[in-house]
Design a protein that fits this description.
Number of strands: 6
Shape: globular
Structural class: alpha/beta
Strand order of the largest sheet: 2-1-3-4-5-6
Largest sheet: 6 strands, mixed
Length: 117
C-alpha cells in the first residue's frame, strides 16, 4: 500500500511502514518538508493513490467535504510517545491494511480501529 505520513507524525512511523513492505513518503521527503501545504499533500495523494496518515482534523474536513485525499488514516491516539505509537501500529498493521482495502476513511486510537463509512 502507498502512504504519505503527515508532519506531526514521526519519520520513525514512515520507516516502520517501509520495513513492513509499503511504499511510504514522509512530508520531510518532499521539497517543502514539513511546511508542505495540505493542498499539496492532497494533490500528491490523489495523483499517486496514497493514503494520508495524519493527526490533523483539516484532512478529515477536506475528506468529508471534497473527497480528498485519496484515502485517510486518522491517528487519534492523543499525545503518546513515538514508541507507544509504533507499538499501536505494530499490533494493528494487518487490521489497518485490511480496513483500508475496504474503507476510504479509517481511524486508529489507542484501543480500537474505527472504519468510517
Amino acid at each position: 500500500m502507498k502512504f504519505i505520513v503527515d508532519a506531526q507524525l514521526p519519520r520513525r512511523l514512515a520507516a516502520s511502514l517501509k520495513w513492513w513492505g509499503h511504499d511510504v513518503l514522509h512530508t520531510l521527503d518532499l521539497p517543502s518538508g514539513n511546511r508542505t501545504p495540505d493542498w499539496h499533500i492532497n494533490k500528491l495523494s490523489m495523483e499517486e493513490q496514497r493514503v494520508v496518515i495524519t493527526k490533523d482534523a483539516d484532512f478529515v474536513n477536506s475528506f468529508l467535504l471534497y473527497g480528498v485525499p485519496f484515502k485517510l488514516l486518522l491517528v487519534s491516539t492523543g499525545n503518546v510517545n513515538n514508541q507507544v505509537l509504533e507499538e499501536i501500529f505494530t499490533k494493528n498493521i494487518s487490521a489497518i491494511i485490511e480496513a483500508l482495502n475496504s474503507y476510504e476513511f479509517v481511524e486508529v486510537t489507542q484501543t480500537s480501529l474505527i472504519e468510517h463509512r
